[in-house]
Amino acid sequence: MNGNAMLPSGPPAPLPKRRNAVLRLYDAPVHRDWLFWTTVGWGVLAAISIPTSDEPTPPSPLPVWLDTLLAIVVMIATFGLLPAWLRLLYRRWRWHRRQRPAPVSAPRPNPASTPRSASAQPHASASPRPPVPSPRRDPATPPPPAADEPRPEAPGGGRRTPTASRHDLATSSVLAHMRESLPHPVARAVRSLQRAHTDRDRYEALLGTAEILAATASVTVAALLNHERTAGSGRADQESAGERNLAALRSAYTAKGVMFGTWTNWLGGLGPLAEARPGLVPGLRDALQDVPDDPGLVGHLNALREERNRAAHGDKPQSNQEAAVRVAEHAHHLERALERARFLESFPWLLTVSCSYQPRTRTYQVAADHVVGDHPDFERRTFTLDEPVGNDMLYLQTPDGPVPLSPFASAGFCSQCRQVEICYTYKAGRQEGHATLKSFTSGHDIPAPELAEEIRALPERARDGRR
Asked: Would you place residue 162 in the very low, low, confident or very high pLDDT band (cuts 50, 70, 90)?
């Protein structure tokens, strides 16, 4: 499987110039702003000239380092910050001047073209309406098509406009279905996306939903692989393949922690295992498989991850209009990723509440919350099992019985939010120390000492990369 299907083949395009994006004074990127280099130049000149100049007469009472520091501050403020501030004022004044509507005078009627018989028919027409001025248009902009002409499609296959994107996200049948059928972390993120009020909020919610979807799919598959490993079933070669995937995840936990890129790379590495054992996680092979003109789950998630990294590195939308354009460009990636992740519907999440032994039937009566859908008040369900389960733990409901999501996901009490949160494991100490959970909802870190040993008990990757 090619996980880099969405990566461009050529060099990346240069970042667009954004005025006054750095400290409200300099343009971004700063290396393309001449005024930034002017400020740096004056500071360097002051730093070199003061220590190397001859001692003044009379000598300064201040030490040389303090004279140099004061000179740098004065030169930067006078010849760097002050011109940048004046440029900002000029740009604001010019922008406000452009925003003023131009005075439009009503055209005078031509007496020669008005028939005199019109005054003799008072009821023939309604009261005259004032002429509507046509909006000003850049001479380089082509005129709009006539009413009977088809509108030309945008380059790249008819990209949707920001207004259409807002409408599609709010009324999308795909998103509405996922809010009811997917595990609660993803369903709640989709609900926040549809209820976002501004384009900037919608942009942040779009990227956050993609990361939560990647984490939810990863911990679900990891729990199934770990259950297969501990159950001891399966052929030796395929079992080792699953252990290598779990070892890669353990390495991420015990290093810097798991992030968006960790989840997408780990899901991409499941391709050989999904092809060899399609019945291990039903639907995973179809979710990861690339088809012509439509990459798999990892391809769509990678496109959204690149946009998230672009924003994290300083290239966030500077206006609601720019945010709307970016949402329109990436909304279809999220919808396709959600459709590819429909295999998660076969593994509902459960949060156990109680487990009591029934002596007469020698079974266990289990009460659990159905952690599915966007509503925070989960539906309470009861099950009769042959084996006991732990209380306050997350499980996957499978045809073969419950599968524990621990140590990949669990419920933890957030001291900041003062409530129990559905979390995923973020990191753990390599040899010792506690594990840290991260809330799907708030992103807060929650210590979890009891999970550290479970994380370290996962298969460990050898130095040569093998088990």
From this structure: very low
Query: Over 80: is that where the pLDDT of 185 sits?
Result: yes
Strand-pair category, 435-439 with 419-428: antiparallel
Helices 320-340 and 199-231, axial angle in degrees (round to 10): 20
Q: Is the pLDDT of residue 217 over 80?
A: yes
In whole angstroms, give the CA distance from residue 407 to residue 223. 8
CB distance 326 to 317 below 8 Å: yes
Distance between CA atoms of 97 and 447, rounded to whole angstroms?
55
Mean pLDDT on 128-147: 44
What end-to-end distance do the CA atoms of the chain give, in Å?
Answer: 23
- Rounded Cα–Cα distance for residues 325 and 159 (Å): 10
Residues 240, 333 within the same domain: yes
Regarding whether 438 and 314 lie in a shared domain, the answer is no
- 331, 352: one domain: no
Tell me, yes or no, whether 240 and 353 share the same domain.
no
| Domain count across the chain | 3
Q: Domain of 326? A: 167-345
Q: Do residue 350 and residue 310 come from a single domain?
A: no
What is the secondary structure of 288-347 as a DSSP string?
Answer: H--BTTB--HHHHHHHHHHHHHHHHTT---SSHHHHHHHHHHHHHHHHHHHHHGGGGGGS
Beta bridge partners of 384: 365
Type of residue numbered 236 = A
CA distances for 101 relative to 126, 130, 141, 214, 321, angstroms: 29, 17, 19, 48, 21
CB 175 within 8 A of CB 331: no
- The mean per-residue pLDDT over the stretch 111-132 comes to 42
Q: End of a domain among 345, 368, 401?
A: 345
Specify the pTM. Answer: 0.64
Instruction: Give the list of residues 6+ apart from residue 418 with CB closer than 8 angstroms, or none.
Output: none
Same domain, 381 and 437: yes
Are both 196 and 288 inside the same structural domain? yes
> What tokens does 119 get?
């005054």
With b for 16 or more beta-carbon neighbours within 10 A and e for fewer, the 292-302 pattern comes to eeebbbbbbbb
Residues 184 and 311 in one domain: yes
| 272-281 tens-digit pLDDT | 999 988 888 9
Length of the chain counted residue by residue: 467
Question: Per the domain annotation, does 303 fall within a domain?
Answer: yes
134 part of a folded domain:
no
